[in-house]
């Protein structure tokens, strides 16, 4: 049993990293504004190229979440083709394809969706546009002129956001799916043409009893991802 004073920072960080997961079923209760602001202030510490801090966020609560949900769910279920600001990966191959499949099957198995049931896959994918029932969604966008550097900075920000959320008992899920209809997002929030939609983050309190939250994804061994040179 650790007292507050003898808990090493690395223990705290490892706990947060281990406990965080992509939440795909939320409870409806909103997160108090002060808690959201504390999370944002912590995430704002993220490092960025030349300290440009290119991330900007549009965050919805209450009615605003419902309105945005209606718009996004409508577009996604209308069959309109995806048109994100950033190109979709050309191909998932080798180990990347294996990991993608494994995590997909984990989700489908947890929900009792049979392998190959494409209609059920599509129905579950649409849940992205229902924000998995979250009371809040954040849209993360960057400056067009910063290109991939701006997008990478937003990726770093995303991790800080999720860890700060976890530290405050808030569950979250990053959602590239919400950037698939970038022009719709820009129009909805009145964003300029110079803003590029990176992704969304749905957040709130987790529904811990929901089957979609019942599994955890695996990670490769560091021996498979890192090479050391020198002593
Ligand atoms: C940039 C980014 C975009 C993501 N987009 C989606 C998404 O659109 N829908 C979804 O269900 N999960 C999305 N995820 C969640 C990943 O599937 C998840 O992080 C991964 O499977 C690892 O699981 P974990 O987050 O539970 O550890 C995204 C994750 C990241 C980092």
CATH fold annotation of the domain at 21-88 and 130-215: NADH Oxidase
Roughly what percent helix? Answer: 40-55%
Mean pLDDT across all amino acids? 96
Output the strand order for the largest sheet: 1-2-4-3
Question: What general form does the structure show?
Answer: globular
Topology as a string of helices (H) and strands (E)? HHEHHHEHEHE
**Rg estimate, integer Å:** 18 Å
Number of E-type strands: 4
Summed up, the helix count is 7
Task: Tell me the quaternary state.
Answer: single chain
Bound molecules: flavin mononucleotide
CATH architecture of the domain at 21-88 and 130-215: 3-Layer(aba) Sandwich
- Show unreliable segments: none
Strand content: 5-15%
CATH class of the domain at 21-88 and 130-215, anyone?
Alpha Beta
Q: Give the CATH superfamily of the domain at 21-88 and 130-215.
A: NADH Oxidase
The N- and C-terminal alpha carbons lie at a distance of 36 Å
Q: Structural class of the helices, strands and pairings?
A: alpha+beta
């Amino acid at each position: 049993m650790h007292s507050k004073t003898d808990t090493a920072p690395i223990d705290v960080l490892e706990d947060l990293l281990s406990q965080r997961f992509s939440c795909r079923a939320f409870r409806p209760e909103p997160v108090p504004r002060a808690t959201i602001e504390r999370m944002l202030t912590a995430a704002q510490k993220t490092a960025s190229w030349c300290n440009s801090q290119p991330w900007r966020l549009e965050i919805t609560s209450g009615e605003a979440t419902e309105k945005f949900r209606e718009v996004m769910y409508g577009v996604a279920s209308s069959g309109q083709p995806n048109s994100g600001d950033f190109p979709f990966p050309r191909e998932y191959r080798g180990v990347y394809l294996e990991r993608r499949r494994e995590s997909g099957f984990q989700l489908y198995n947890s929900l009792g969706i049979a392998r190959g049931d494409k209609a059920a896959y599509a129905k579950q994918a649409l849940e992205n546009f229902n924000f998995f029932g979250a009371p809040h969604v954040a849209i993360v966008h960057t400056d067009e002129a910063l290109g991939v550097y701006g997008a990478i900075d937003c990726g770093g920000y995303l991790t800080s956001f999720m860890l700060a959320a976890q530290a405050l008992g808030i569950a979250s899920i990053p959602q590239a799916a919400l950037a698939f209809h970038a022009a719709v997002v820009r129009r909805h929030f009145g964003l300029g043409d110079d803003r590029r939609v990176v992704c969304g983050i749905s957040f709130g309190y987790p529904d811990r009893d929901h089957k979609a939250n019942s599994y955890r994804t695996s990670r490769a061994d560091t021996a498979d991802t890192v090479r050391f040179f020198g002593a």
